[in-house]
Write a structure and sequence with these properties.
2 copies of one chain form a homodimer.
Chain A: H1 11-24, H2 27-33, E1 41-43, E2 49-51, H3 53-65, E3 70-81, E4 85-96, E5 106-115, E6 118-128, H4 136-140
């Protein structure tokens, strides 16, 4: 069983543990990835802003209680890292176990802070990225 | 006229300049706030992920060309700052000039980096925060 003592040596380790814990619907493992602080912020796709470790935990508990098992493919589109902070911008392609459809892609900002116990997630902001929108890059090129 | 040499001494200065430039529909002033780099990321409410300084500029140019004049009230809900990075989590309450309604509140993550020319915006991720959702904090207390 994971514990608060789990050491994530890199932001990538913490991010992988985050998505694996969601896939397994493992609340304890998931909450090990988050900073144990009031400053944590979680915005689910289409959802309100939730802050504070206890509130984030309660939100995920309710999600897992719903019973859907999710599978993620993560595309890291950019990463900015300095000694104390890592900012990842990713696209999540999510499928639900037992269903063929891929859900609307999700664009997510994941921010990790480095502390005595390695890297921990401090902010996860996710929102649907509408497929009907033509990326500006495609307009320009 | 603002220029790339504008110095923002604090993340708050850069953030204030960001929202003021949007209110004035001043593209040059707005783009002065952004890091002049490929790593910049912009997610508008309900929109796709846009990256790169030129693409972000083109996206805002199109917004301003639409002609709507917006007024912002910004509520800073949390701020994490270390020597090189500032992470602000804010709620934007937006009104459109000539209309009485307040739009759906927007939750935004604003990330600023400190460089030789002070603080600059490197990521703005915004998404609608549905009023019908009951915050988890209200469920718990």
């Amino acid at each position: 069983m994971p514990s608060q003592k789990t050491f994530f040596a890199t932001p990538q380790d913490a991010e992988a543990a985050f998505y694996e814990a969601i896939e397994r619907a493992d609340l304890d493992a998931l909450m090990t990835v988050w900073c144990d602080e009031e400053e944590v912020v979680y915005v689910a796709p289409g959802g309100p802003r939730i802050s504070g470790y206890a509130n984030v935990r309660e939100s995920w508990r309710a999600v897992f209680e719903g019973g859907a098992r999710l599978h993620f493919r993560i595309h890291t589109l950019s990463a900015l890292v300095n000694p104390f902070t890592a900012i990842h911008s990713v696209v999540e392609k999510i499928t639900v176990e037992g269903q063929d459809d891929i859900l609307t892609p999700i664009v997510a900002t994941n921010i990790f802070l480095k502390g005595a116990l390695g890297w921990r997630l401090v902010l996860h902001h996710a929102s649907p990225s509408p497929p009907e929108s033509t990326p500006v890059t495609q307009i320009l090129h």
